[in-house]
Design brief:
With 108 residues, this protein is of the alpha+beta class. Helix content is 25%, strand content 29%. It has a domain at 19-83. The chain contains 2 helices and 6 strands.
Amino acid sequence: SAAILLLDMKKENFQIYYEEYPEKNYRQVAKGIAEKAKKKFAQPAFLIGISNAAADGEEVLRGIEEVCGQEVNAFGGAAGDDYAFTETFVFTNQKDSDSAIICLVLDE
């Protein structure tokens, strides 16, 4: 199965970030994305997708909160594989990984 989001927005109102976390440093990777987003937007909001069944989504949120504060709007979930628990992927037009985060950041 696949989930697809189609939006028609001005490019200056959003940014897509994609980072792998091969070292399982979920919080640090998310913090890096949040820092980039904060430089681009005064008040960023995050739509997050993570891959790898063992990925710690709470650590991802904590990394974003460290930079943007506890009142940040962040939504998302983990890639699924119909309960096989073997491999899950996130992807962009150029990349895919079973150990990465993809994040659509919107300018609130």
